[in-house]
UniProtKB/TrEMBL annotation:
Organism classification: Bacteria, Bacillati, Actinomycetota, Actinomycetes, Kitasatosporales
Topology of the protein relative to the lipid bilayer: Multi-pass membrane protein
Subcellular location: Cell membrane
Name listed for the protein in its UniProt record: MASE1 domain-containing protein
InterPro entries: MASE1 (IPR007895)
Keywords: Cell membrane, Membrane, Transmembrane, Transmembrane helix
Major localisation: membrane
Superkingdom as given in the UniProt entry: Bacteria
Ranges where the MASE1 domain occurs: 21-292
Amino acid sequence: MAAVEGVRAWPRPVVLACGTLLLAGCYYAAGRLGLSQQLSADGAVATPIWPASGVAVAALLLFGPWCVPGIALGVLLTVLRLGNPGAAALGIVVGNTAAPVLAHLLLRAVGFRVSLSRLRDGLALVFLGALTATLVSSGMGVGMLLWSDEIPTGHLGLVWLAWWVGDAMGVVLVTPLLLLMYRARLPPPSVRWAEALGLAVVVCVLVPLITYSSVSVLFLVYPLLIWSVLRFQLAGGMSCALLASVLATVAARQGAGSFGRLTEIEAMMELQAFNGTLGLTALLLSAVISEQLHTRRSVEGACHELVEALQHLNAGGPPGPGGSGGDVR
């Protein structure tokens, strides 16, 4: 018999170091992607969507506190990429690391489920993970920039609002998709594949036309979003919302479509309002429909068990006429 040699697992420190570097690289890549679509309004620069915040929150929800060093390293690399290292950069690193940690703690405290199968999960992610926790990163970041005289006092409110909304939209739009991708399993071939392909083609064709139209028709995205959510829940809704938000951001940065007639501040405000309402609608509507489907399946399962129990009771009932359960001759 040939000897079988056991395969030794890698030492835990090596696994943690590799995971930290991988997460830092993912955060840095997401940060570079967000920085590539900066908007300028009255001299202030902002990113309408900061996907790195969504990456950080998703990593903490899936893998736990060991992700904190990777997040901090990714934030540091992103800040160094912007230049001007110093006390302000250190404050930004602390704030952008503390915000997703706070989001993780708040979501765990309320019993958040990564499946996002309940309305309360969607509400918790929006109001605790996105809108509340990102107050830390935006407040500390803008405060450090103001302290180092990198932004004028007159731009304080605009920069803070843009920073806060950008971080929050990263959590609302990116985190659900990452959570979904982590637990996704390829379904068997069915008729729904054809519908999914058709929906993808329609969305990819119509959304660019809508966002780049010179007429303000951004509201036409919502019928496509509702179709995506009704048929494919979180996967369809968040994919459609993210695509529309990214294309709208690109159009606003280029001054194209309905954004071309607006001032810089008006374009930023309209874009942030559009991205915010789109992300909230997709996430909360998906959670509502998923919860209803889960409830219906639970009711159907309970009815099926009840029918089986009644059939079992009838099968073991009292004997019929003649002293036996058989036919009377």
